[in-house]
Amino acid sequence: EVATNPNEHAMVRHEAAEALGAIADTSEETTQTLQALVKSPEAPRELRETAALAIRRINKRKAEALTESANAAAPSPYLSVDPADPLDPSTSTETLEQTLLGGDDEGGISADANAEDVANDLERRYGAIFALRDRGSDDCARVLCRSLVGDVRNPSALLRHEVAYVLGQMENAESTDTLVACLSDDDEHVMVRHEAAEALGAVAASNSTCRDVARSALERFRSSAETTADAADALIVRESCEVALDLLAREERGEFEYVYIPDTKRSVSGKRE
Fold it and tell me: Degrees (nearest 5) of the Cα angle 20, 22, 27?
């Protein structure tokens, strides 16, 4: 209902469609709903792409259940339910970089596109994102940053928002300047700026060396009057900065973050946004 409601904010509709994929509901009704979103000319590009990835994930999980596949992807080391599986861990960083930064269709998904065809390219690039995240090196963080801003920035807001999200998971200080630039871009899609803000909070909470830079940017946009032409989008940016600053403050006070995992020595956020 939420995913198909045009009166809901596009970011909320995206979250609902992504949740359908995470739940992996194999009912015909769910598949038809997602297929309709992929083909809808009125649906925003990011929503159509989300629905395409959700269909792919549902179909893969359905196939794994039928075959009791031993090749099913291992759970994410970050305890998140990702919309696509990471590429093979043996894939070189250079190949992952080429996969992520390769050419993209500026036009996005056409109204007559087949959901499976659309998902092919997205799933491949997402697989590179999650493989780079799981590898976790500074070089991997820099590759991810290149897809978020600059001359090879990916034209898909959905993909860019996922990159910002995983940079927050990685908590690598190398990404600070990129995330600040992303948050500061008034022309960037609000869902990407939202993720950049929360990622900055996570990175700064784990790296005192970049804390002042991140805090300054977050405080600036938390108190900003109108950072976008759309009042709802401006509110999302401000509230995202508020959440990130709260996370940072909790870290500095020695409090837990969102979720505490008893058998580890750190708190992690397993939420998807």
Answer: 45
* Count of Cβ atoms closer than 10 Å to residue 144 Cβ: 27
CA angle, residues 114, 195, 120, in degrees to nearest 5: 20
Instruction: Return the closest-CA partner of residue 76 out of 121, 120, 130, 157.
Output: 130
- What count of Cα atoms within 13 Å lies in the side-chain half-sphere of residue 38? 23
The amino acid that residue 201 corresponds to is: G
CA distances from 125 to 65, 79, 154, 266, 271 (A): 25, 20, 10, 29, 21
What are the pLDDT digits (tens) for 12-69?
Answer: 999 999 999 999 888 999 999 999 999 998 999 999 999 999 999 999 888 887 776 5
CB 79 within 8 A of CB 47: no
Q: What is the DSSP letter of 209?
A: G
Q: How many CB atoms lie within 10 A of CB 213?
A: 17
**Cα–Cα dist 50/109, whole Å:** 11
C-beta of residue 55 within 8 angstroms of C-beta of residue 119: yes
SS3 172: coil
How far apart, in whole angstroms, are the C-alpha atoms of residue 71 and residue 209? Answer: 41
Q: How far apart are CA 47 and CA 175, in angstroms?
A: 26
pTM of the model: 0.87
Q: pLDDT tens-digit profile of 153-204? A: 888 999 999 999 999 999 999 999 999 999 999 999 999 999 999 999 999 9
Angle subtended by helix axes 231-252 and 190-206, to nearest 10: 10
